Task: structure prediction
Amino acid sequence: MITENNLTSSEQLSYHKDGYVVRENIFSKTEVIEINVALERAVSKALLLSKIGDVYHLDGKRFVDLDYLTVQFETGRDSETIRVIEPAHQLDKDLKELIADPRLVGPIQDIIGMKSISLWTDKLNLKRPKEGSGFGWHQDSPYWVHNSENVDLLPNVYLSLDDATLENGCFKVIRGSHKKGCLPGTDDGTQLGGFYTDPKAFDETSEVSLEISAGSLVFFNPHIVHGSEPNLTNTQRRAYIITYQPGGLPMLKSGEVENIKIR
Result:
């Protein structure tokens, strides 16, 4: 049975050919406001928890680990501006409920090819006005390949929580780059350089900048090369990224199983 939450045949073709598919304006303005309230609650809680976690620095950025929560701050050893929180669903009940929303889950079931799915990981990406830094070209799969035997079956959904533009650092992909699997990382002498994709390994002329409105979704392959530029504006550029996997499998950081209850 096909529902409005299933991928159409043309969407499935685009996902397999290009490595991503966009669905515009899936969440209403009211829903986006409510999700952003939950997001900011999670950020406030993460900031408090970061005061008691284990602190370390990589390439000038401060990270804090507490149990299986990782909080990454903007560049600067004393920055209090959070850049990434992973995982995030345990910080707010509304975020936890969101991961089972049929508008997210239906297409993911089609991509994975099974009804039973579970959570792999989720993260909040925050680009605060004027100080939100960019993300260099990278794939997700090299981060995960040593922790999952199903790295090809870890599709992501990117929920845009603000209107995304070139100026505020919208999500960008290299169309078709997923077809090559895990690509080599850079060797630039930095601590995190190996996690960024070697520019010689993909064709940057295939770049697509996804200027999408708040409430829109991007479903993307774990192997696709993606990144973004800094936020140069006075507006927010926030996003919630959720990664799923076949049902019954443990999550990335906690090792617990979070099966998705289909609504």
The first helix runs from residue 9 to 18. The mean pLDDT is 95. The longest strand covers residues 117-127. The helical segments are 9-18, 29-49, 93-98, 102-112, 141-144.
